[in-house]
Design goal:
- By secondary structure, the protein is of the alpha+beta class.
- It is 31% helix and 20% strand.
- It has 4 helices and 3 strands, in the order ααβαβαβ.
- Strands 1-3-2 form a 3-stranded antiparallel β-sheet.
Length: 107
């Protein structure tokens, strides 16, 4: 089995307004924010309203994310999480099948 190298991948995300509102409500729920803060060992976290679709690893995307989001990966002030699949289902988002959300740590 040979490896296939992906040179170009369209990782843009466009969500309809209703799905986006539902997803944002779930991602900013107090219980979920507390759970993330506990996992990150910080007092509070804040959703930045930034979402992206993971992309295949390549020479231009070595972190598996669009290049414009790599600065958040390298920063200690931010955390990138996978959006839970049940949140995607509740928001009726089926394409893309995976999303990541960026949170700012507030200590």
């Amino acid at each position: 089995m040979a490896l296939k190298i992906v040179e170009n991948f369209d990782g843009t995300v466009a969500l309809d307004a209703e799905a986006k509102a539902t997803l944002f409500a779930l991602l900013t729920g107090e219980a979920f924010l507390s759970q993330i803060g506990e996992q990150l060992k910080c007092s509070r976290v804040e959703f930045t309203s930034l979402l992206f679709q993971p992309v295949p690893y390549s020479t231009t995307t070595p972190k598996g994310m669009p290049a414009e989001f790599e600065m958040y990966h390298q920063s200690d002030e931010y955390a990138i999480i996978n959006v839970p699949p049940n949140f995607m289902f509740k928001a009726k988002i089926f394409n893309p099948s995976r999303l990541c959300a960026i949170y700012r740590k507030i200590s």
